[in-house]
Amino acid sequence: MLRCMLRAKIHMATVTESNLAYEGSITIDEGILKKAGILPWEQVMISNMNNGERFETYVIPGKKGSGMFCLNGPTARKGAVGDKIIIFCYGYFEDEKIKTSKPRIVTINSKNRISKIK
Fold first, then answer.
1. Closest-CA residue to 84 (of 25, 10, 34)
2. Which residues pair with 87 in a beta bridge?
3. Which residues are the active-site residues?
4. Helix, strand, coil percentages in the chain from 3-state DSSP, rounded to 5
5. What is the pLDDT of residues 20-77, one digit of tens each?
6. How many whole angstroms separate alpha carbon 116 and alpha carbon 107?
7. What's the CATH code of the domain at 46?
8. Pairing state of beta strands 114-117 and 104-108?
């Protein structure tokens, strides 16, 4: 049996931009994506700490080192610049693999820099 489990999480990032005119997605600093193990175009779920919104989209890599977290297209309506968000990435695992797998959790500080990787 396959179970859907948390694979990666980017915790407490701050939304830096909002671009309603774009087709859709979230743009995230490429360096942070790599540290979290999230691939470009991969599906993510986002939870907005400020307004309680929870939504799914896909990831576009942004400039490495920029600290960018930009809500694009319709997702721009789900949050505002300055909102704190949590990005979840799930995967499907066999029961045996679950026993040895741990999610990678990347905690972001108030300047959108990595403060801890777990």
1. 10
2. 10, 46
3. 25, 58
4. 15, 50, 35
5. 999 889 999 999 999 999 999 999 999 999 999 999 999 999 999 999 999 999 999 9
6. 5
7. 2.40.40.20
8. antiparallel
Nearest to 46 by CA among 22, 76, 3: 76
Measure the CA–CA gap between 16 and 67, rounded to whole angstroms: 8
Q: Tell me how many domains the chain contains.
A: 1
- The residue among 101, 98, 91 whose CA lies nearest residue 6 is 91
Beta carbons of 13 and 41 less than 8 angstroms apart: no
The radius of gyration of the chain from alpha carbons, rounded to an integer in Å, stands at: 14
User: What is the greatest pairwise CA distance in the chain?
Assistant: 44
**Range of the structural domain that residue 32 is part of:** 2-117
Contact of 10 with 114, CB cutoff 8 Å: no
Which two structure tokens, joined as six digits, stand for 87?
């990005």
Q: Is 32 helix (H, G, I), strand (E, B) or coil?
A: helix
